[in-house]
What does this fold into?
Amino acid sequence: MRRNPFARCLTRIGWLAASGLGAAVLCVAAAFGQGPTRPADPWLDYAAVEYDILPNITYAVGNNVELKLDLYLPKARGAPKPVVMLFHGGGWVAGQKERNVLQLLPYLRLGWAAVNVEYRVARQSPAPAAVEDCRCALRWVYTHAQQYGFDVGKIVLTGGSAGGHLALITGFLPERSVFDRQCPTDDAVRWRSDQEPAVRAAAIVNWYGITDVADLLEGANAKHYAIEWFGSMPNRLELARELSPIQYVRPGLPPVITIHGDQDDIVPYSQAVRLHQALDKAGVPNKLVTIPGGKHGGFDKETMVRAFEQIRGFLRQNGFPVE
It folds into this structure.
């Protein structure tokens, strides 16, 4: 029996590579584009010659854990490129950056740079470690913008579930936040000043992310994954509020588009509605894309196509080069 392209791909590169690094991404993508009735997207045929992949770069060290990110860079550097930063989901207690790599393909198709970020989960360090790490990753992008050709004026933060929360809180925290204090700083600043460089995202694509962390610790919406993230710390409700994007809504935030199923049983859809209403009140450009009957992700292909049409339109309206 003839094997399908995906099976052949896994045989060639092995299961480890298929987790998301290097040629695995392009192999898997090309496999999905093949078939007797579905012609391949031409971009998939030549993407391998357009992109460099630099895996597992250390961007910071937290609690003796080296924190890694993967870069996906257009080989034709030229002018600085828009960059998407992806934070994986997993309730702050699980997940790996490699499992999410295919979520980058719509942005790579646009010729953007991409940064796939790992962070400490609860078994390594409880809250607020994940937030600190993601803020440090954003600062790393700023610090290395010239080296890698990043356009720091066009940074999009994205992720799903806990990754959506991390995209939001990373983009919403004000300058000189307490959660920035562990980020590495250039020696010219570290020894002579307390100043830290300002960092800012230009837009956020939030896939069913948590917007009110405290809401998940007690009451009708309590979830054990959130409880695990805080463990036994005595001030958990206070800290949870400090880590909740809804608490930082104010004029001048980056534009936000949220995609959320109205039957989500892991992150309440009501949190997306509340964020949308708060952003509207503050005058922040935003859009809530409701998936009728949608659960916690796992959307079908037609839903994903429509969602990315909405995302591209939203980014285009907010000044991004989206064809």
Summary: The beta strands are 51-62, 65-74, 81-87, 113-117, 150-160, 203-207, 256-261, 286-291. Residues 1-22, 31-36 have pLDDT under 50 and may be disordered. The radius of gyration is 19 Å. The chain has twelve helices and eight strands.
